[in-house]
């Protein structure tokens, strides 16, 4: 079945710097790759997603890139702010089946 | 937040007892999911439903069963709870299949002693 790896497990950046989180997946049939943000004690919430027919997607300070050949995708956050501090999860899905999340990255933005 | 609730929000039970968690939605979404969240493992899919009385297993379904008799309710049952099932359980809903945004419920913290 699908396996999703995520790196790094923890990441600390200075406020205003950029943060990059990388994920790899194993199933070449996966075609949907969302990113979720989970603040402490809260539920996960979608922040951005990308489908396999697109190489890059941006939404203000966040962007996601996808390399289907290498089976990896990345989350980029620019101009980080303290409210970006949270745990971020990537996931991979194949037409709604086999929805698999990565283990998460704890991002800390230092003032 | 989407209209999705979970009950109970917290539960402490003993090994060997049955436990049922309820997920209720007011969005009329077709798809519903149960995940468990444990440190270092992210979210792992237990079971999901693609319609009333239509369910399927996820990655970690052993020891769990589900039922969906109405569009709005998705029940997760631990027939005989074990300490390894201590976790935070999240329900999620989506209007379309998995390649569409999933909205998560607030979670249920279950402790099995």
What are the key terms here?
heterodimer; A: 111 residues; mainly beta; 5-stranded antiparallel β-sheet; 11 strands; B: 113 residues; 4-stranded antiparallel β-sheet; globular
Task: Please tell me about this protein's structure.
The complex is a heterodimer of chains A (111) and B (113). Chain A contains no helices and 11 strands. By secondary structure, chain A is an all-beta fold. The relative contact order of chain A is 0.35. The model of chain A has no long low-confidence stretch (mean pLDDT 94). Chain B has 113 residues and is an all-beta fold. Helix content of chain B is 0%, strand content 58%. In chain B, a hairpin with a 2-residue loop joins strand 7 and strand 8. Chain B is globular, with a radius of gyration of 13 Å. Chain B starts with a strand and ends with a strand. The chains are: A mainly beta (111), B mainly beta (113). At the A-B interface, strand 5, strand 9 and strand 10 of A face strand 4 and strand 5 of B.
């Amino acid at each position: 079945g699908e396996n999703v790896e995520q790196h790094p497990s923890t990441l600390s950046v200075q406020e205003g710097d950029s943060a990059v989180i990388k994920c790899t997946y194993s199933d070449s049939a996966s075609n949907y790759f969302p990113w979720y943000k989970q603040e402490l004690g809260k539920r996960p919430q979608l922040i951005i997603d990308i489908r396999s027919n697109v190489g890059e997607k941006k939404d203000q300070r966040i962007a996601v890139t996808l390399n289907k050949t290498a089976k990896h995708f990345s989350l980029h956050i620019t101009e980080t702010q303290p409210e970006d501090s949270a745990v971020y999860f990537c996931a991979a899905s194949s037409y709604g089946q086999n929805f698999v999340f990565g283990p998460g990255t704890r991002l800390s933005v230092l003032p | 937040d989407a209209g999705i609730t979970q009950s109970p929000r917290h539960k402490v039970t003993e090994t060997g007892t049955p436990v049922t968690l309820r997920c209720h939605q007011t969005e009329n979404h077709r798809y519903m999911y149960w995940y468990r969240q444990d440190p270092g493992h992210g979210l792992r899919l237990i079971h999901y439903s693609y319609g009333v009385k239509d369910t399927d297993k996820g990655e970690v379904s052993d020891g769990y069963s589900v039922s969906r008799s109405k569009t709005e309710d998705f029940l997760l049952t631990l027939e005989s709870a074990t300490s390894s099932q201590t976790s935070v359980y999240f329900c999620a809903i989506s209007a379309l299949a998995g390649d569409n945004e999933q909205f998560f419920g607030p979670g249920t913290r279950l402790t099995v002693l």
